[in-house]
Design a protein that fits this description.
Aldehyde Dehydrogenase, Chain A, domain 1, 18 strands, Acetald_propionald_DH-rel, NAD, seven-stranded parallel sheet, about 475 residues, 2 domains, oxidoreductase activity, Aldehyde Dehydrogenase, Chain A, domain 2
Length: about 475
């Protein structure tokens, strides 16, 4: 071949390559399914088929393409944060708009992405071994009503960064905002890349459709946030499952603690979004020497103290259903709403209701998801730690301690064996949300405690694959 011919050939190849990346570098010749538009379908089969087709296109794209997808999600949702928070509050009736704004910003801007996928390489006289993180395929996700928009954002960024597509099963109690999120996410991604259906869902979500999805042959992996029943369904599906289950986080306070700080952190964190976070403080276990001071400081920070045991039992009877679960009427509701419904008079605008309770009281042992905070008193630190382990219930989810005694902190962290452990701070800090909107670490919304992955990242939704080349690739030495 002549030089001129070679040059023409190269130019033609480059022209063809450039033409394939028109429409923002992603236009595909394959016709992608429409369904009802923007990722919404009427059947599980159609939704999964569309996601599978999109994922097969997507996994062949370079990492730069994935970064473009994530950027489209962040840029697209950024101007709508307050709108999403208000719509979520309106539909679910839970939490506060202010807290939801903080959680949405955390999910959008603080979720780890493609940067997590740096390869690992080992070289030596025996050649080279490399580990890379590659997609599973189509992941089946199930979201909660407590954090619907945040979970769509958080899961989508992690899973799409890993090269997967996502079928998202909406909670019936948050189906409107979940659909809005998925429709808009698809629009943002399509406008930026020309690719459709990376995240799909159904127009009419149901328990039956989630069960069908879990057993669908083209769903490669499951990521489920919810109660024990839905997590159990995922675990017996025969697929790899990431289970984000229940928690009942105790806040321990020993006699060395900075009581002012402990009281502020516990009340603020318990009240955050009216306690619907599974990581939020659900009970306080305190050493008797500082109990009275702690209660006084908590009242100064906005907690309302109930001293009559009969009123405490009345709260339990009212807020816990016959099935032993929290009554949804009170989940995520304001402390004042709960007090009003119980006919308990109060002054001011309390954010949390506190009261003494034994360790076996149902308001201690039940994950209430509302701003009711029982206080269990123990004679010494050993008893505090033993009691905290008991009331956490073996969920291995979240616990915290307020102490200036380093051995106490170390022993408690070891003994609690939780996915999240916080010392001298509000537990929401460990989810990536910080006081006054500052962020402290990667966003953590899908916390896989039953299956052990803990706070999930992009890597959680990848296969770790090993590539070995025995013949070389070591720059340190060479032998013919």
């Amino acid at each position: 071949m002549q030089v001129n011919d070679l040059e023409k050939t190269i130019r033609q190849i480059l022209k063809e390559e450039l033409s394939t990346v028109s429409h923002n570098n992603a236009s595909e010749s394959v016709s992608q399914p429409e369904g009802l538009g923007n990722g919404i379908f009427t059947t599980v089969d159609d939704a999964v088929a569309a996601a599978k087709q999109a994922q097969e296109i997507y996994e062949d794209k370079p990492l730069a393409f994935r970064k473009k997808v994530v950027k489209a999600i962040k840029d697209g949702f950024g101007p709508h944060i307050e709108e999403i928070a208000k719509a979520t509050k309106e539909e679910t009736g839970m939490g506060t708009v202010e807290a939801k704004v903080a959680k949405l910003k955390n999910a959008l801007y603080n979720t780890p992405g493609v940067e997590m996928l740096e390869p690992e390489v080992e070289t030596g006289d025996g050649g080279m071994t490399m580990y890379e993180y590659t997609p599973f395929g189509v992941i089946g996700g199930v979201g909660p009503s407590t954090n619907p928009g945040e979970t769509v954002i958080n899961n989508s960024i992690m899973m799409l960064s890993a090269g997967n597509a996502l079928f998202f099963g909406a909670h019936p109690g948050a189906k409107k905002i979940t659909r809005w999120m998925i429709e808009h996410l698809n629009k943002f991604v399509y406008d930026a890349t020309g690719l459709k259906n990376l995240v799909v869902s159904l127009d009419k979500p149901s328990i039956e459709s989630v069960q069908e999805m879990m057993h669908h042959p083209d769903i490669a992996m499951l990521a489920v946030t919810g109660g024990p029943a839905v997590v159990h369904q995922a675990l017996i599906s025969g697929k790899k499952a990431i289970g984000a289950g229940a928690g009942n986080p105790p806040a321990m306070v020993d006699k060395t603690a900075n009581i002012d700080l402990a009281a502020h952190d516990i009340v603020t964190s318990c009240a955050f979004d009216n306690n619907i976070l599974c990581t939020a403080e659900k009970e306080v276990v305190v050493e008797s020497a500082v109990k009275d001071e702690l209660v006084k400081k908590m009242q100064e920070d906005g907690a309302f103290l109930i001293t009559d045991p009969k009123l405490v039992d009345k709260l339990a009877d009212m807020t816990i259903g016959k099935n032993g679960a929290p009554d949804r009427k009170f989940v995520g509701k304001d402390a004042t709403f709960i007090l009003d419904e119980a006919g308990i008079s109060y002054t001011g605008n309390p954010s949390v209701v506190i009261f003494d309770a034994p360790k076996d009281h149902p308001l201690v042992t039940t994950e209430m998801l509302m701003p009711l905070l029982p206080i269990v008193t123990c004679p010494d630190f050993s008893s505090v730690l033993k009691t905290a382990v008991e009331v956490e219930g073996g969920n291995h989810h979240t616990a915290s301690i307020h102490s200036e005694n380093l051995p106490h902190i170390n022993k408690a962290a070891h003994r609690m064996n939780t996915s999240i452990f916080v010392a001298n701070g509000p537990t929401f800090a460990a989810t990536g949300v910080g006081d006054n909107g500052y962020y402290t670490g990667a966003a953590a919304l899908t916390i896989a405690t039953p299956t052990g992955e803990g706070t999930t990242t992009t890597k959680t939704f990848t296969r770790r694959r090993r590539f070995t080349s025995p013949e070389g690739f070591s720059l340190r030495s060479w032998e013919e």
